Amino acid sequence: MEVRIENLTKTFIGRKGVETTAVNHMNFTIPDGKLVGLLGPSGCGKSTTLYMIAGLHKPTDGHIWFGDEDVTNLPPENRGIGLVFQNYALYPHLSVRQNIQFPLDNVRFAGAFGEEKNAVADAKHDIKVTKHDIDESKKAVKQAEAAIAKAKVKKEHFEKAEDAVGVEECEEIIKRSESLKKSAVERLPKLEAHLVDAEKKLEEAVQNLEKAKVAFEELKVKDPEAAKEKGKTKLSKADKDAIAYEMARIVDIDQYLDRKPKELSGGQQQRVAIARALAKKPKVLLLDEPLSNLDARLRLQTREEIKRIQRETGITTVFVTHDQEEAMSISDTIVVMKLGVVQQIDEPQKVYEEPANLFVAKFLGSPAINVFDGEIKGGKLLLNGKVFDTDKVYGKVDRKVKIAVRPESFTLVKKGGSIPVTVKQVENIGRDINVVGHVEDQPENHLKVIIPSELREEVLGKEKLSFNPKRFYVFEEEGDRVK
Amino acid sequence: MAEKTLKLPSEVYAEIKDKPLIGKRRRVQLPQWAVAWLVLLPALVFLALFMFYPIINCFFMAFIRDFQYVDSGGTFALSNFFRAFSDPCLQPFEGAIHCTKRLGKYFMAFGFNNFQTVLSNGLFLQSILNTAILVIVEVPLTIIISLLIATFLNNIKALKGLYQTIFFLPYVTNSIALGLVFSILFSNTSGGIMNYIITRLGGQPVNFLGDIAGLPYKMADGTIVELPAASKFNQGIVIVVNSVWNGLAFKILVFMAGLATIDKQYTDAARIDGAKSFTIWRRITLPLLSPQILYITITSFIGAFKMYTGVISVYGQGAYYFGGINKTDWMPVVGWIYLQMSNESQYKGINLGVPAAGSLVLLAIIMLITAVQFGVSKKRVHY
């Protein structure tokens, strides 16, 4: 199921009437069967977006589409979604099995002649609506006629008083009312025809229902088992048990089915929550920071598990997280958000390699990207007054800019590199070495460079080093990327 | 306005660096248990005086023949066990099991005679039946109503505080006053709103509380209708309505507090899982509220078995009037016990052993039912 977010906005009104916009005109589409990560710092509106997709929050503006269906005003219970809460929200008084079966308990079938019954109800509804429309149209005709009569009297009055403006106004009213009357009169025969149609349909539907009832009675006599199967309105206990077991097996908790949630570890609870969300075969699976309560090892493991389950089931999934690494590793697409505004939507690697703005560049990657001050002068990019980029001609306007380089994109050179660095400290972290310091003459811009540990000898004890960037990004002072 | 400049933490540390700290003299320290006893002492003294001693005394009294306040041992009931054989007032227990065992010049006035008296007293048995009926009708009713009200109060947003205050009012109102209000609401006089509603809806006026026939009721059209004497059923309605209303406030309060502790995520999760409101209430909210429900059920049962003011207040005709010509229509067990201690009893305030035995029977019933409730609750309450 494709999920489409259109112009979605959510404004909360606080205690003193202060408005806070949590989500601001958001647009994106999640293709069928993909896993999308909503990524952003705390308070950026990613959970609010998720809850709006779930239906627990009502959007202030905008629409949410599941496939071709506009679900914006649908209550959560009718949306067919699965949601895994941040702290799982497993029902503490129910066993794991009962927790997984809870969504199944709420499944209701229409019963033996449900289709026919629904057809009758639809026809009845159609008739009611059509009748209402006819009444409205008739009323509109009458109102228009009354308005015309009134305007005519007024017009005469104005004509006598030789008030040209008044006459014109009255003519305007008459014209408008007449067009209204015309459209209403034109509408009426169509509606009446439709009413006749609808009544015929109702008759048919009622007959079909009668037939279905008779057929069902016959079936009851002929094949009681089949009749029972056809007439059932709920899932049987055996069916529910089968599904619960299958779901528990997928998330690997089938040996704990009879335990209560509090008798399980955090990771197991988390998997029960996923099983519960999957049990009713949701069209969309929503995960609200599902890994934040797990320890580091379990987090890695569960992350892979979620990816596996998502691939296996092929359910369109939205995953909320503030952990960029988590989002990068698990998602097909990342939506980066800041203060309710989408910053970038792209594949994980693209978001990392081609950040749309300084915020995205800073938010992704660990250790964070290094940012220092540069300058554009006469179309050239300068760092500390020296030409930084010889290949490219930048715009004519002279201005200050930010230059950003990822920690791993530095190459050490003996002399004359474009980034002179004052070293404060060298950290060993096994495979790599971290060089901590700052760009010369820019002590406020901290710098962290990761270089392979073979270069240890060349780095140790030196106060100044020289680097060349393998790759860098240039941003305006306000944060937009300079292309 | 000038902004207040904050000191640097280093400045604060520098300032306080050389200041002497409060002396660390060794003090005599009582062990923890001794401190606990010391703190509990005042409460224990009062409990001992006004609770433990009367309870123990009550136990002894119940097994003593002709308990007497003024005797060689003062009011301590145990002393009544051994009384001078020569005491002319005393006769050996009739039908008692351990009676008249001689111990020198004393004999034991000890036995189950009081219980025999109590359990063969028709009025006592009737009072037990009355209480049982009131308990069985009132307790479930009041719990269900308060649960519903608490649920609805929990779900509304506008004017929640106002409604909460309204429902809490009975709690701060004197129960006798409440009873009087209900006796007026159900009366045949001009304040009798219930009869007004009944007649307006086309029914016949009802005598709810009056024990004599022929009370006049003025219909809306001015005609006077004479009412028959109040049936026991009619009186029961007023008593139940009064006590249900009386008990609502506290129960609503407890349920509201319980509902507030239920994480909204559970109901959100249940909605996502496709449950309708009633299903959520039945399958999620109620089980999560079960500790509070158990607490309220047990305290309500105990409270209802001890019912007394709830009955006399709706009649408003004194401490020993429980409705009807005989004044005993809805006599509760506690009422019976009080009556035995009053001058209106056949024992004329002499034999406190009989009401003491009555209290013990009531205690036994309450203990038994509470034990059963705890037993049943083990499976159904989720902590």
Question: What's the helix and strand layout?
Answer:
The complex is a heterodimer of chains A (483) and B (383).
Chain A: E1 3-13, E2 19-30, E3 35-39, H1 46-54, E4 61-66, E5 69-70, E6 81-84, H2 96-105, H3 114-161, H4 164-222, H5 224-231, H6 237-250, H7 266-279, E7 284-288, H8 296-313, E8 316-321, H9 324-330, E9 333-338, E10 341-346, H10 348-353, H11 358-363, E11 370-377, E12 380-383, E13 386-389, E14 399-405, E15 410-413, E16 419-429, E17 432-439, E18 446-452, H12 456-459, E19 464-469, E20 473-476
Parallel strand pairs in A: 3-8, 3-9, 6-7, 7-8
Antiparallel strand pairs in A: 1-2, 1-4, 4-5, 9-10, 11-12, 11-14, 12-13, 14-20, 15-19, 16-17, 16-19, 17-18
Helix pairs in contact in A: 2-6, 2-7, 3-4, 4-5, 6-7
Chain B: H1 9-16, H2 32-62, E1 82-84, E2 102-103, E3 106-108, H3 113-119, H4 122-155, H5 160-172, H6 175-185, H7 193-200, E4 215-218, E5 224-227, H8 232-261, H9 264-272, H10 277-288, H11 290-305, H12 309-315, H13 333-341, H14 353-380
In short:
The complex is a heterodimer of chains A (483) and B (383). Chain A has 483 residues and is an alpha+beta fold. Chain A is built from twelve helices and 20 strands.
Any overview of this molecule?
- By secondary structure, chain A is an alpha+beta fold.
- Chain A folds into 3 domains: 3-80 and 282-350, P-loop containing nucleotide triphosphate hydrolases (Rossmann fold, 3-Layer(aba) Sandwich); 114-231; 367-476, Beta Barrel (OB fold (Dihydrolipoamide Acetyltransferase, E2P)).
- Helix content of chain A is 42%, strand content 26%.
- Chain A is built from 12 helices and 20 strands.
- Chain A has helices at residues 46-54, 96-105, 114-161, 164-222, 224-231, 237-250, 266-279, 296-313, 324-330, 348-353, 358-363, 456-459, and strands spanning 3-13, 19-30, 35-39, 61-66, 69-70, 81-84, 284-288, 316-321, 333-338, 341-346, 370-377, 380-383, 386-389, 399-405, 410-413, 419-429, 432-439, 446-452, 464-469, 473-476.
- In chain A, helix 2 (96-105) crosses helix 6.
- Chain A is flat, with a radius of gyration of 33 Å.
- Chain B has 383 residues and is mainly alpha-helical.
- Chain B folds into 2 domains: 32-111, no CATH class; 119-380, MetI-like (MetI-like fold, Orthogonal Bundle).
- Chain B has helices at 9-16, 32-62, 113-119, 122-155, 160-172, 175-185, 193-200, 232-261, 264-272, 277-288, 290-305, 309-315, 333-341, 353-380; strands at 82-84, 102-103, 106-108, 215-218, 224-227.
- In chain B, the strands form 2 sheets. A 3-stranded antiparallel sheet of chain B has the order 1-3-2, with no helix packed on it. In chain B, strands 4-5 form a two-stranded antiparallel ribbon.
- In chain B, a hairpin with a 5-residue loop joins strand 4 and strand 5.
- In chain B, helix 2 crosses helix 14 and helix 4 packs antiparallel against helix 11.
- Chain B is extended and about 95 Å long.
- The model of chain B is unreliable at 70-74 and 91-101 (pLDDT under 50).
